[in-house]
Amino acid sequence: MATAVLALQGAFAEHEARLAELGEKSFELRDASDLLRPFDRLVLPGGESTVQGKLLRELGMLCPIRERICDGMPVLGTCAGLILLARRLEALDDKHVPRLETLDVTVERNSYGRQLGSFHATEEVSGVGADVPMTFIRAPKITHTGKGVDILARVGSSPVAVRQGAQLGVAFHPELDDDLRMHRLFLSL
């Protein structure tokens, strides 16, 4: 089949390029009619989670996507995509942002600061290997993980990559680096 890449806003083209490098067919989800196309996995890119969530709701895509994820469809959520997947937001964050709420984590939006606070790290990711490049841009911080959530990587003491079943959530942007291992992990789910 193919991988659908949410293309409402954000870094979707970069994910498509990485998937193509791995020989994976992909197409863009832009409205509810695109959900009728056959796909067996989904990428939720970085960008602005508030905008993406509101557009998902307005376009009638939020509930159908949530149902597919709950039925076990593999999903990769990067940065804003992680926020969309998160079951809970920290107290200071806008609780009215429409989200999918399928991944049992709590996140704090923009926790690593503004655009100028962006940074790059290299860490080991369980199941992927050592020296995985991680680009953080206004990234969310995972502040709590629930039962059944495996922490795959940390920067300092904070989880930055987690997996729950077929859901892979990362606070960084693997699509912005040349390393394809995070996308390979996703395609293996």
Your description of this structure?
With 189 residues, this protein is an alpha/beta fold. The chain has helices spanning 12-21, 49-58, 62-70, 80-85, 181-188; strands at 3-6, 26-29, 41-44, 75-78, 86-89, 103-108, 119-125, 129-136, 141-145, 150-155, 158-164, 167-170. It has a 7-stranded mixed beta sheet. A hairpin with a 2-residue loop joins strand 11 (158-164) and strand 12. It is globular. The model has no long low-confidence stretch (mean pLDDT 94).
Mean pLDDT: 94
Element-level helix/strand string: EHEEHHEHEEEEEEEEH
Taking all Cα atoms into account, the compactness measure Rg is 15 Å
| Overall morphology | globular
Quote the CATH topology: Rossmann fold
Number of helices: 5
In spatial order, strands of the major sheet run: 2-1-3-4-12-11-10
Number of strands: 12
GO molecular function, one term: glutaminase activity
Binding site for L-glutamine: 47-49, 109, 137-138
Family: Belongs to the glutaminase PdxT/SNO family.
Catalytic activity: L-glutamine + H2O = L-glutamate + NH4(+); aldehydo-D-ribose 5-phosphate + D-glyceraldehyde 3-phosphate + L-glutamine = pyridoxal 5'-phosphate + L-glutamate + phosphate + 3 H2O + H(+)
